[in-house]
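Re-running the complex after MR caught last week's input typo. The corrected sequence lines follow. Everything else is unchanged.
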Amino acid sequence: MNAVITASGLTKRYKNSLALDGASFQIGAGRIVGLIGPNGAGKTTALKAILGLTTFGGELSVLGLDPRKQRDKLMEEVCFIADVAVLPRWLKVKDAVDFVANVHPRFDRAKCEAFLARTKLQPNQKVKQMSKGMIVQLHLALVMAIDARLLVLDEPTLGLDILYRKQFYQSLLEDYFDENKTILVTTHQVEEIEHILTDLMFIRDGKIVLDTDMEALGERFSEVLVGAELAAAARQLNPLDERQVFGKSIFLFDNVSRPQLEQLGEVRRPSIGDLFVATMKGTYA
Amino acid sequence: MKTFYWLVKREYWENRGGFFRAPLITAIVFLVLNFMAIVLGEVLGRSRGLHFNTASDAMGSSLSNPLGNLDNKDLSQVGAVLDMTLYGFTTFIVCVTAIVVFFYCLGALYDDRRDRSFLFWKSLPISDTNTVLSKVASAAILAPVISVVIGVVGGLILLLMGVIAALFHGINVWQVLLEAHPLRVAFNMVCLIPLYALWALPTIGWLMLCSAWARSKPFLWAIALPLGSAVVVQWFGLMGLFNLPAAWFWTNVPGRLLMSLIPGGWLRDTSSIGNVDKHDISGALDSVGLSFHYSVLGSPNIWIGAAVGAVMIGAAIWFRRWREEA
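Corrected-run output:
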């Protein structure tokens, strides 16, 4: 695999907690990877390490560079949206475009202006006069016009309404993503990005607990709707999770052969949300 | 270089209010007050029956053409007074800018960490060194230059007001105005900016260091640390170890760290002026020229201060690289 990010044994300790506890993973080129985890699992710390914004222990190579030592060079090929609404409040739309156009060697001004033309943003509008959704539109227009090899998104749609959220991911897919680009995204709104991901990573307590591509996910995990009479038999197969719906039980299995499961009931592919809940059981307990 | 230009431009966009509007409004307010004072003087003068022009008419041509009585030497004295007015007004405006710059430095590397917008700037390929140096350049060069321009233009308007007021009384002093040297004043003030920047470096460096380092309340840290240390030094008489009075510490540590933005702070360290005739304003003004100001470069104070300032700016760059949001 042509790896864009290779991490092994990432560790980061804050005063009294371990944010990253030996996390290891690899991300290939041309993938859209979702890094999913509960609050405080280390998602943002992992992204900060990748972007060279924090110190950490362990090995990490991003596009062949060490983000701790070669950050300035790295940022020519990496872009990120750290959070919603982090654009400075005094910035005007036209100044933002001017500035990025003049400091970023891989910025395509025409492309950015075309994106902006599709929004209601005015050249003289300041960020403080915009709604949260409009700020994200501006940020996205700036970022999509940069021909970066890696785009990192940390909760990019938090607090946006569903129209903006849908539009955000649709623009990314249609106008930005191609086989030379890699996108790494963290979010809590798992259902909305489920269909655009090629890979999925779960992080819990600073460790990567699941790292798979979406096709393998469908083969490995199955959800079975089992009647009450067969529930005991299903429990014999060590399900990850069990929940009750309308007097029937839904079991979630990891690596159990499909014919075996089909004897128990209707088999289907689990949603990432259900898989997440099952994997993270007991996190806050 | 292009990146650096745009970084300074960004600082101007963000701080137009402080760098441009604050000195401009101060100048306008001062001029308006001055105008009102002139009008008030005229009105009061008339209502009390003081008729200056009739008096001058009675005295004949000597007052309506006061310049007739002045020889060249006197004229140059008048010119020097006008130049002093220009210097004074410009210095006043630069003082206003100094206050603005003080708070600009305190916020420069802190405010964007607090509102998290530094993450946007950090997503662009700009080195932290360039970012910090662009802010130092804005504080040490850009803001003073804008201030000097506003000061000289405002000072000229002030002189013009005086001339017009005199005209109302039939006194033609246009010729006197020609004795002022606004270009020379502007040139001298601009030439003093590098010296000012060098002198201000310890304050700029210290404030930026606090701004980059503090997790909260950079103002408090910036003030409390130097003042606290001076109090401790004085309390325990620590300077006695070096056979120096505590006052030495006060002037050279908290003084230099916090007060070096005040224009002309270097004047204590310049070479002595020599014998100046109190009545020869023009001569006095000439003797406090550029070479007098720049003689401070011969004293170690300015160089040690600048070196310490540079080290603190280096530390600020390091903190800018690694400090996370406040």
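None of the earlier attempt is carried over here. Residues 54-64 of chain B have pLDDT under 50 and may be disordered. Chain B touches chain A at residues 2-3, 6-7, 9-10, 13-14, 112, 115-117, 119-120, 122-127, 321-322, 324 (CB under 8 Å).
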